[in-house]
Amino acid sequence: MLPKLTTHIPGPRSLALSQDLKKYECRNVTYTADDWPVFWQRAEGVNVWDADGNRFLDVTAAFGVAGLGHGWSAEFMREQSGQMIHGMGDVHPTALKVDVCRKLSAMTFERWGHGIGKTILSNSGSEAVESALKTALMATGKSGVVSFKNSYHGLGYGALLGSGFDKFRKPFESQLAPLRKVLDFPADAEDGLIRLAMQLKELNPEEIGALIVEPIQGRAGKLVPPLGLLGMLRSWCDVSNVVLIFDEIFTGFNRSGKLFACEWESIVPDIICVGKSMSGGYPISACVGKSDVMDAWPESTGEALHTSTFLGNPVGCAMASASLDAHAEDHVAEKVQATGDKLIAELNKIDHPLIHEIRGRGLMIGVELRHDDGTPAGDVAGAVLSDMLRRGVIMLADGEAGNVLAFTPPFDLSDEEIEFLAHQLWNAISSAIYQLAGK
Ligand SMILES: Cc1ncc(COP(=O)(O)O)c(C=O)c1O
Asked: Which cofactors does it use (predicted)?
């Protein structure tokens, strides 16, 4: 449904809640200002209602989680929570955990013709990445980690080791292990891939156990690499005895228009990390690897080396089990591709000098804004986000300079909503420029 606003944005209730939150939450967590945020109260499909009763159109799918639509898995949560909401995941597990691990294997390594995939479940994307990095050390005995500039893998310490975003890693660098190499993420097939091949040659495989990559960089600004990147990494990892990890926490489960983004290049990793859309809203994630790699872990003797209290939570597993079934249906990827094509076509109609590039795959789309002199227009993007919020659209921006407007909506976006979005975006960019010029 299109937005329906009945108060100023943010409304009085949101503004009052902001004041309260500022008193009690660590000030680093939630950004609050006169024009941001709105406090969410209810969500369904592509819509969110705030505490003041305003209805918004959400083009973030709440960080990419609600691909199947807000509330899609709520009935599975209700049903399971009526029976049991918490168990002992790594001691006395549930049948649901077996179900989820079996389905993840079937959707990944078995489907790709590489035998059974084995899983470590966890609660957040960052934890799934940490499981993968620990597995790589177990499997190779080598602790070094290679990642890409501006890659985002989460903010836990292990995940920060793979992070290519200086702003997130630098404040904590003194507590991180030093052996870490960062490569340039290739933007084009010729120069980018050639430079990368040279960078790979300079690495010492003796000290590197893991190479982690997002098949499409999300937080970096929806950067789609040239075909050939994943194949090049696969070959280098094979000859170097390095575990190849695909972080598909954002791209996974049809977001890119294929079940997994690595399928655009038909390259199979040793480990895939998934999360976000896996359950449609419950914090659950997974590190799934080829059997021989995962079997580098010793058999449990009753004390798992890597686990957590909520691992395999039954509510999360019930929601994930239903979501995995839905994602496995071929028509979902087809729908995402078709909707993404339509969205890109409408965005392309916006003829604005500030738009430097519109790019993406499926429903993972970025609109990069740059000033005349080529500098990133993060200032304009920031003003556009607030303006779009006042127009009833929930949006975020990506990229190191925050200058890439991000479109990662729930999959079921109608043509009318897409046309509305493009029209509002055109207006918002134009008015942001006037607003900034007047400052
Ligand atoms: C590619 C990627 N990896 C890992 C993460 C971290 O996931 P979480 O925030 O659940 O820890 C994210 C989150 O945005 C992500 O986009």
From this structure: pyridoxal 5'-phosphate
